[in-house]
Design a protein that fits this description.
binds Phenylacetyl coenzyme A, mainly alpha, globular
């Protein structure tokens, strides 16, 4: 057996691949792409919700939202650390984000216009994220799989708080009910796009399934999500904005309408309503942090020199 065959055998035997193990270069590059994109999504994903921290309607809601946004920062950090084990530096990953070489999830290029959007993000966006991430707890690369275990626990709290927020609005005044329905209308289709292109238009799925980086295809996960949300929306007494959404007894799944893939393409090309705002915010944070990085490096250098002097004296 050559290296490639031994590697595939390990994957087939469900043995985790660890950073120092031999791996095909394309496996390493695929993981760097996916994990760094995932990390960037967590960090950029803090922005739409962070926008509402000062305007949360009660102290309880504010503390929940702060905790959630802080969790997303933590997720980003675990994921950057997991990607670093593959031999890429954090600075390089940030550079790729800032120059547009690395993507982040399309969903975070949509604006949060009302308070109900915070509920819709929790319920729909975190709901989609969990469905995608639970199988990633069993992904073939050890550090990524282990990071996902804690991330999923926190995401499940995120989804529940979003649902509870919308449930409260759905039982409120007419204006609150309308705000709730409007947020669902705006976030539904973009949340379906989070799962990526259809399988026949997904260049990476087949190889990632063979390497067990992905355990389900984009379309399989999207269908699971639709089946779950189509039931949950009934509890909210709201509607999903899809006239074609209908239970199919033969398939034992919900049928659904056409996704606007042109909109997805435009968002990925940088033409979504918030792309520029999101990237500008990240670039500004990087520039504003320059003095902290310089101070930390100077301190580390000084410590290293002190240690050397102590050793030689
Ligand atoms: N947005 O061949 P595929 C969260 C790109 S975390 C932008 O199917 P793959 C938590 C894809 O990169 C949300 N780009 O690719 C939170 C590829 O481009 P490339 C993030 C997308 O990798 C909640 C090209 O299209 N989650 O929400 C998207 O096999 C609330 C072709 O696609 C993850 O990243 C998209 N939606 O499958 C935080 C999970 N979809 O790089 C704050 C891990 C596809 O070749 C608040 N990632 N693309 O130029 C994955 O599971 C996979 O990477 C997929 C895409 C499923 C996203």
């Amino acid at each position: 057996m050559n290296f490639e065959e031994k590697f595939q055998q390990k994957i087939d035997d469900e043995i985790k691949i660890e950073p120092k193990d031999w791996m095909p270069e394309k496996y390493r590059q695929t993981l760097i792409r996916q994990i760094s994109q995932h990390a960037h999504s967590e960090i950029v994903g803090m922005l739409p919700e962070g926008n509402w921290i000062t305007r949360a309607p009660s102290l309880r809601r504010k503390t929940i939202l702060i905790a959630k946004v802080q969790d997303e920062a933590g997720h980003g950090l675990y994921l950057y650390s997991a990607a670093e084990t593959l031999g890429i530096s954090r600075d390089e990953m940030y550079h790729q984000l800032h120059t547009g070489k690395a993507k982040y999830s399309s969903i975070f290029n949509y604006p949060t216009l009302t308070w109900a959007d915070i509920g819709a993000i929790g319920w729909l966006v975190d709901g989609a994220a969990i469905l995608n991430q639970i199988p990633l707890c069993r992904t073939s690369f050890g550090p990524y799989a282990r990071a996902m275990v804690r991330v999923c626990k926190e995401e499940s709290f995120h989804q529940r708080q979003g649902f509870e927020l919308l449930l409260t609005l759905s039982k409120g005044t007419e204006a609150q009910k309308e705000m709730c329905q409007d947020a669902i209308n705006r976030w539904w289709w973009p949340s379906l796009m989070m799962f990526g292109p259809n399988d026949d238009a997904s260049p990476n799925t087949a190889q990632s399934m063979q390497w067990k980086i992905k355990r389900f295809t984009n379309d399989e996960l999207r269908q699971k999500f639709i089946d779950m949300i189509a039931e949950q929306v009934k509890v909210l007494n709201m509607q999903l904005p899809d006239a074609d959404l209908k239970w199919n007894e033969e398939r034992k799944h919900y049928d659904f309408g056409k996704i606007n893939w042109e909109e997805f393409k435009q968002v990925l090309a940088g033409n979504g309503s918030c792309n520029k705002q999101r990237l500008d915010a990240r670039k500004k944070a990087w520039a504003d942090g320059a003095w902290v990085r310089e101070a930390a490096s100077a301190y580390a250098e000084k410590k290293a020199v002190d240690k050397l002097i102590c050793k030689t004296v």
